[in-house]
Amino acid sequence: MATTTRAPRQSPVEFSREAWQELRKVTWPSRETVLRLTLIVLVISALIAVYIFAFDNVFTAVITNGIVGSPTATPPPQ
Question: Of 32, 52, 30, which Cα lies nearest the Cα of 40?
Answer without folding.
Answer: 32
